[in-house]
Amino acid sequence: ARKPLPDERTKNSTLCRSVQSMADFAALRTELSALVGQADPGVDAKSVAQSILDRWAAAGGSPDDVLVTITTAAYGATWPAKKKTGGAEAPPGFKFVPFEWLQRFTTAVFRGIGVPEDQAAVCTDVLMESDRRGIDSHGIGRLKPIYYDRIKDGILNPVTKMDIVKETETTAVVDANLGMGLYAGPKCMEMAIAKAKKNGLGMVVVRNSTHYGIAGYYTLQAARAGCIGITGTNARPSIAPTHGVEPMLGTNPLTIGLPTDEEFPFVIDCATSVTQRGKIEMWGREHRPTPPGCVISRDGRTRTDTEQILVDLVKGEAALAPLGGIGEDSGGYKGYSYAVVVEILSAALQDNGFMQSLRGVDENGKKAPMPLGHFFIAIDIEAFIQLNRFKEIAGNILRGLRASEKAPGAERIYTAGEKEYIAQCEREAAGGCFIPPSLQKNVTIMREELGLEKDFPDLPWETAANAASS
Length: 470
What we know:
It is a single chain. The N and C termini lie far apart (58 Å). Helix 2 (16-36) runs antiparallel to helix 3 and helix 2 (16-36) crosses helix 14. A seven-stranded mixed β-sheet has the order 4-5-6-13-7-8-9. The chain is an alpha+beta fold. The longest helix has 21 residues, at 16-36. The chain is globular. Residues 1-23, 82-88 and 465-470 have low confidence and may be disordered. Helices cover 44% and strands 13% of the residues. The protein contains 16 helices and 14 strands.
């Protein structure tokens, strides 16, 4: 039997709270280092620096760090005071909401706008998985702008009717008829897994679908079934080609998941851009600047003005940089090419829309449907090797990587899916997560517009505020 490396499993169960803060802090250190290292940080440098320092302090960073000293001296940013909310640290205005409440409310909203009860439960589960795993860019924060508003605008069907266009023993082409991608996605991966269990491999492609949430949800489905899972989707044009400035490709994630002998599977779920539109939307809700190097303007310069970036991405006046960055020197052509692969696999196999046809507006500038395409691949591991042996080898590879020599100052080495697992441990132990003021406002709007006050008479943050003031 495999001997685990020292402290491997106990660390994952006992450091759920502290390690996520360390992970956040490491990312902030990288962000602050990039700002300090810029020759021309731009006119927004002070606001960018202040935002980083605010989050640095919340993550437990020291005000005596040399990077903080340089930043405060060079950009005029100030060290913030920590804010405590309900016994836990949270950014100003953020309020804690229990998962149980979020799940009931999200399901009620979906049902209120016409999603059938069984489909609403599936859609809610996809969104909630994102919030549980700490992926706030794709959870309940997208309920109103991506699903609720689009159904109200008539560009997304609340009832998902799935038609099988073509099928073989190992493949299928499905038409989702502009229904809920959050429902079509899980069902199509289920179909791919069933084909894989019977034939070794299964692939299902979908056309005329809509936004399907976090891609990692579907590779987790496969991994839990003892399969290797692969999925991807195209999206509204956001990424500029290398040496270009016009948004042509979606953020197009290429996502892979596989089971291991650890408590969590290996899951790499990321966009083929430096950052994705959902994260910029999250920064907008939090009134935070976009880090330099993520977005390119029509004149080829990087941009940080988050709110205007979101407007200009739709207008085509700004674009996301591909994974690897702007230009070829840092490898931007690699992310660009992977985005093209996902675009082709999400369009050509399905005879579906692509690139500019997914802009979400017609020739008159009016809102229009975005017929997205997805692909789902499941590979049954037992068709090649015993599942337990595969898991053991995979686990040994990951443990070997995490046990390798660390860079000076590094807290620890991670493997894909580990931070999300730790975040999920932390959030489930707490029973919920914090949401920003803008999302609190959206929840209030949806409750009032759908007449849900009877079922949800008290909003969690109102209750907390009343308790704090009593």
